[in-house]
Write a structure and sequence with these properties.
The structure holds two protein chains of two kinds.
Chain A lengths: L1 H4 L4 H10 L15 E4 L11 H9 L4 E2 H8 L3 H13 L3 E4 L2 H4 L4 H13 L1
Antiparallel strand pairs in A: 1-2, 1-3
Chain B lengths: L10 E9 L5 H8 L5 E8 L1 H5 L9 E15 L2 E7 L7 H8 L2 E8 L8 H10 L3 E6 L9 H8 L7 E4 L4 H22 L1
Parallel strand pairs in B: 1-4, 1-5, 5-6, 6-7
Antiparallel strand pairs in B: 2-3, 3-4
Helix pairs in contact in B: 1-6
The chains are: A mainly alpha, B alpha/beta.
């Protein structure tokens, strides 16, 4: 067993602790750069883990899944599970990235080019 | 999605930086990112566990893989994310997921190991994802005629190919500008 040989089973232990062992997000899949926005705070916070609450705080300002994972120091899969919980509870909205949503129009391309030139 | 877009001007754009191991992907990301490239672990369950939804057995987790990314804020609510794709072949499926919704990809090539760039060129070519080839000109590396590199990699004529210095911010910016221009042209062709 690889787990027995590995003195640091960190990610696995954290996954089970944080998601109750669930490896998959519930509901519609979302991208690593989907934008997450907190749209409600729970009346009863007892049902939520500290990580859920931390994610809600971070997403008070629209934040991507990747950035939330980094802020919470959690692997992306785990971050996705947590965020899908919050979406199911109606506490966050998760918006598909621009290219997927088909909103990469000429205006956005021009804005991106101008922005890059100005860096 | 269940929810209306809260702000139509909040957009995140994804660009992939691909290429062989040690070709300078993280270096390129560092050169333009406003944050130190962050490494977020992707916890991998085995492929079978992902597909077999009925087993009720989750978390057949075997390994983690680091996913490096950098960020450029163009304005409040408009970000470019640069993802360095994992170099190892066994993580191909992650490329697939990453590639969905990407604006485009930069394939970094090293003339000393041009062959390492083949899988990436192939990948983006097959999926019709806009990409370009940036030849990372390492110190002391022999200068190569871009036309020779293009032929060696069998890169079609409409795909941009340029020499760059992945450590240099201006050079990295020029690479991204070239890619975005190319992606815009491609989207105009498709439209």
């Amino acid at each position: 067993m690889a787990a027995d040989e590995d003195p640091d089973p960190g990610p696995l232990v954290r996954m089970f602790a944080v998601t109750g062992g669930r490896a998959r997000a519930v509901g519609e899949a979302f991208d690593v750069i989907a934008v997450v926005t907190t749209i409600g705070m729970p009346y009863d916070q007892a049902g939520l883990s500290p990580e859920h609450l931390a994610a809600l705080r971070v997403a008070t300002r629209p934040t991507t899944v990747a950035d939330i994972g980094t802020r919470l120091r959690l692997p992306l899969n785990i971050t996705r599970v947590l965020l899908s919980d919050l979406r199911r509870e109606g506490l966050v909205s998760i918006e598909a990235p621009a290219a997927t949503a088909g909103v990469l129009n000429e205006r956005i391309y021009q804005e991106v080019l101008n922005g890059l030139r100005a860096l | 999605m269940d929810y209306a877009r809260s702000d139509p001007d909040t957009l995140a754009i994804k660009i992939l930086i691909a290429g062989g191991f040690g070709v300078g992907k993280t270096t390129l990301v560092s050169a333009v990112s406003e944050i130190q490239p962050l490494s977020t672990e992707e916890l991998l369950s085995d492929r079978g566990a992902r597909i077999d939804d009925t087993s009720g057995v989750e978390g057949k987790t075997t390994t983690t893989v680091a996913l490096d990314f950098g960020r450029i804020t163009l304005r409040e609510g408009l970000w470019i994310y640069l993802f360095g794709t994992p170099g190892q072949d066994r993580f191909w499926f992650m490329w697939d997921e990453l590639a969905i919704g990407a604006l485009g990809a930069v394939v970094l090539a090293d003339t000393r190991r041009l062959g390492d760039a083949f899988p990436a060129v192939d990948f983006f070519e097959q999926r019709r994802i806009p990409y370009m080839v940036a030849v990372n000109q390492f110190d002391g590396a022999r200068r190569h005629d871009p036309a020779v590199v293009r032929r060696a990699l069998a890169v079609p004529g409409h795909v941009p190919l340029m020499v760059c210095d992945a450590r240099d911010r201006e050079s990295a910016k020029e690479v991204l500008l070239t890619l975005v221009r190319h992606a815009r042209e491609m989207s105009a062709v498709r439209a």
